Amino acid sequence: MLRVLVLGGTTEASRLAQALAQAGVDGIFSYAGRTSVPIAQPLPTRVGGFGGVAGLQAYLQTERITHVVDATHPFAAQMSSHAVQACAAVGIPLLALERPAWQAHSGDVWQHVPDIAAAVQALPATPARVFLAIGRQHLAPFLACAQHWYLLRLVDPVLDLPTERGHVVLDRGPFTLEGDRALLHAHGISHVVSKNSGGAGAQAKLTAARERGLPVILIDRPPVPARQTVGTINDVCLWLGCAGS
Ligand code: NAP
Question: 147: part of which helix (H) or strand (E)?
Fold first, then answer.
């Protein structure tokens, strides 16, 4: 009898939950709890950390989980690493649903950087108007560069900025090209900083930046341990043996 733990937080995880619910698969959806009102799921949902690898191991056993699907954000490397370790320790199969990283197109002005610190360093010494599309964590090192003005797009109103320092837009993806074109134009953005999250929901800003010839500082994904990985929800369903073709 299948009982699937879906580690969520992405659009793909929500789509997977839909597919599993439609197929009548018994499962639990897990959120980190990074937003105050997470998107409702058609599976029973839990919110918050498990308490490290040991906590996840205990959870898998207590809940009699038979399969784990890691559909977390590509930058949620700690959760992914914990899932690899905990599943190996208790002998539960793990599959990662991973979206490909974004690739540059003709006309893109991308600078790839390995991490947040390098992204801060990549900004110019002179004042810039920066669309900082990296979520709520790791804003501090950017804001410490007082010469720049920042446009932040956040799900929750976790901070405010004085108008001379920036502007906060409250919004949740997927984002449209029209909307991101308008944002870059309205705020006179000169640079975009983004994680290389991949996927369609947050890609519009890259297209809008290309159209305006704006430089994009793109933060590489953190490394995660080797695990079995697929790219589509259909592949996950095939792996679970519950549907797909
Ligand atoms: P993380 O650094 O990999 O995880 C930190 C801890 O959060 C984990 O060790 C785990 O706590 C808990 N956690 C993470 N995902 C969980 C889940 N699905 N269910 C239950 N607990 C979970 O990940 P993060 O801090 O959430 O995010 C890291 C980066 O990923 C952020 O900078 C953000 O840009 C990006 N991101 C994450 C999400 C998301 O939903 N997590 C969504 C969009 C973007 P325990 O060790 O206690 O189990």
Answer: none
